[in-house]
TrEMBL record:
Residues 173-592 form the Peptidase M3A/M3B catalytic domain. Its cofactor is Zn(2+). GO terms for molecular function: metal ion binding; metalloendopeptidase activity. This is Thimet oligopeptidase. Keywords: Hydrolase, Metal-binding, Metalloprotease, Protease, Zinc. InterPro entries: MetalloPept_cat_dom_sf (IPR024079), Neurolysin/TOP_dom2 (IPR024077), Neurolysin/TOP_N (IPR024080), Pept_M3A_M3B (IPR045090), Pept_M3A_M3B_dom (IPR001567). GO terms for biological process: peptide metabolic process; proteolysis. The keyword Ubl conjugation does not apply.
């Protein structure tokens, strides 16, 4: 047994992890968002140094002996859980391996981080540009075209950044334009990241073998709700089968519409899928995305998001002046019942060298009576009118921020914020998306230039249109999940060839030739083999939402119970127990299966 008191040992360890975690969080954030490339590079180097130190700690046999010698008698439930998690982390680090193996694991940790950073950097800095004739952009919104004038050569420059590429893929009537932009987006970081990803996969495979696991997937799933690689493969297969009828039904509808323009069309590929989905929604389901976007001016949406989430969870967001990394960033202090509980930062517009997707970053982990949590939302939205899909994304990502702040009153850093099992992390955010589809909620902030609120009938039609394609979207998600799983389960000789095989197996849409989506699939860096977690979480999110009254989404009793029983505990309890505590029963597939099988527009 350790000579030091058990609680003192754990508190010392947790204080050290808090300092490391906050330093690493700041470095990780700045490497993705700072406008100065030299600062981004320095932040990457700091991340490497911090990770190396953390690895040294996890492989230090003397420190491990002290922690392993702690007598658990007398510890409360939280401290006992903390001890169990720390000992498990030590074991998974390889601390009980022989010295030579520990040294190799130390080297692997360093190489994996550096390779992941290289993979992400190539995506972040690999923006591609396509030059198109103005007439090829017929169908694009007027405000988009005004923001993209032709250059001296008479051509319009379109980048692979989301505010450029998604509207072209959605609205451009010219197929060649859609193919050009889609292909460019699917070849970002090619060929560089092909070799980088292969190296990363090889490192992870060796890491898992040294720890006694057959594959990286076996190592990764052990600490998640799903628990095993076999269960992950089974889940992907189950969703694929469940989504099949809906996917084929909606694809056929989309295919028939596409053949009106191209009678000789044999199949629908990824360059046509988004465009013809939009046409079906506009022509057959009476929803025009360009009409819808008139109601979603960015500033109104941001203000509405804060109002809605504040009312729902009893939070107050107060703008504050704060030193930030860019003038676009806004900061807010967060209060609950008159008490300040944290601070958030919103960095919501694209710029060169910035993270290209949407994510919540931790800046400071909250600790009860010791530190207030701080979190950052990083997105890439237009400064003008937004697509409704972007509004949904904003609600989703903001859900992570709420989770981080409301769960920031833990006794242990190990359980602070979004610290649940990784395959539960997305569930609260996916559930919050439901508020972005409610007519009353949207009417509170979605207004056109004349001040008219978005009509309830339009929102009803938007929901029906949104549900068109949910089956083939689920199949696309399972394609991504299968890529994530498969590449970590058995490394193929040719990554592009294997990706093509998986797309044909899981997606209902044909791939574009000479594309290499894995090179810009950033989740392979952060989520590794666990992309399935998005769908796993969605299944739970649909079940969580079943507890709310669709006629009154602001009912305080259920909203507060959700806040206090799902969000506030952070990682202090297993996710399955949190859900059961909130729902009064274990979670099931029932709500998700019913939603997936329901035809668009039906109740």
């Amino acid at each position: 047994m350790s000579d030091a008191p058990a609680l003192e040992v754990l508190q010392t360890w947790d204080a050290l992890q808090t300092a490391l975690g906050d330093a690493g969080a700041a470095a990780s954030l700045l490497s993705e968002v700072h406008p100065d490339a030299q600062v981004r590079e320095a932040a990457d180097k700091h991340s490497q140094d911090l990770d190396a130190f953390a690895t040294d700690l996890s492989l230090d046999t003397e420190i491990y002996a002290v922690v392993a010698g702690v007598d658990p008698d007398g510890l409360d439930a939280d401290a006992t859980r903390m001890l169990d998690k720390v000992l498990r982390d030590f074991r998974r680090s390889g601390v009980d391996c022989d010295e030579a193996t520990r040294e190799r694991l130390r080297e692997l940790n360093r190489l994996e981080l550096e390779t992941s950073q290289e993979f992400a950097r190539n995506i972040r800095e690999g923006t591609k540009t396509v030059r198109l004739r103005p007439e090829q952009l017929d169908g694009l919104p007027d405000d988009w075209r005004e923001q993209h004038p032709a250059g001296a050569d008479g051509l319009v420059e379109v980048t692979t950044d989301y505010p450029d590429s998604i509207p072209v893929r959605t609205f451009a009537h010219d197929r060649d334009a859609r193919v050009a932009v889609s292909s460019a987006s699917l070849t970002v970081a090619w060929p560089d990241n092909d070799a980088v990803l292969r190296r990363l996969l090889e490192l992870r495979a060796e890491h898992a073998r040294l720890l006694g696991y057959p594959t990286w997937v076996d190592l990764d799933t052990e600490v998640k709700m799903i628990e095993t690689a076999e269960a992950e493969a089974g889940f992907i297969a189950r969703i694929t089968d469940l989504a099949g009828p809906s996917a084929e039904r909606d694809k056929q509808r989309l295919f028939e519409r596409a053949r009106q323009d191209r009678p000789d069309l044999a199949d629908v590929d990824t360059a046509d899928a988004t465009y013809y989905s939009e046409l079906v929604r506009r022509e057959q389901l009476d929803v025009d995305a360009q009409e819808v976007r008139r109601y979603f001016a960015f500033e109104d949406v941001r203000r509405g998001l804060l109002d809605v989430t504040g009312r729902l969870f009893g939070l107050t967001w107060t703008p504050v002046e704060a030193t930030t990394w860019h003038e676009d960033v806004t900061a807010y202090d967060v209060e609950l019942a008159g008490e300040r509980i944290g601070r958030i930062y919103l960095d919501l517009h694209p710029r060169d060298g910035k993270f290209k997707h949407a994510a919540q970053f931790t800046l400071v982990s909250g600790l009860f009576e010791r530190a207030l949590p701080e979190g950052v939302l990083v997105c890439n939205f237009s400064r003008g009118l937004m697509e409704h899909s972007e509004v949904v994304t904003l609600f989703h990502e903001f859900g992570h921020l709420i989770h981080h702040v409301t769960a920031g009153r833990q006794q242990w850093q190990r359980f602070s914020g979004v610290a649940t099992e990784w395959d539960f992390v997305e569930a609260p955010s996916q559930m919050l998306e439901e508020w972005a589809w409610d007519a009353d909620v949207l009417a509170s902030f979605a207004r056109d230039a004349d001040g008219n609120a978005i009509p309830a009938d339009l929102v009803r039609r938007m929901r029906a249109a949104h549900e068109f394609g949910k089956g083939f979207q689920a199949r696309t998600q399972m394609f991504y999940a299968a890529v994530s799983y498969d590449l970590h389960h058995a490394l193929p000789d040719d990554l592009t060839e294997r990706i093509g095989e998986l797309q044909r197996q899981y997606s209902v849409f044909a791939a574009l030739p000479d594309t290499h989506m894995h090179c810009s699939f950033g989740h392979l860096s952060g989520y590794a083999s666990a992309y399935y977690t998005y769908m796993w979480s969605l299944v739970i999110a649909k079940d969580l939402f079943s507890a709310f009254d669709p006629g009154d989404l602001f009912a305080s009793e259920v909203a507060e119970r959700y806040r206090d029983r799902i969000l506030a505990p952070g990682g202090s309890r297993d996710a399955a127990d949190l859900v059961e505590d909130f729902l009064g029963r274990p979670y099931t597939f029932d709500a998700y299966a019913a939603w997936l099988s329901r035809e668009p527009g039906t109740d």
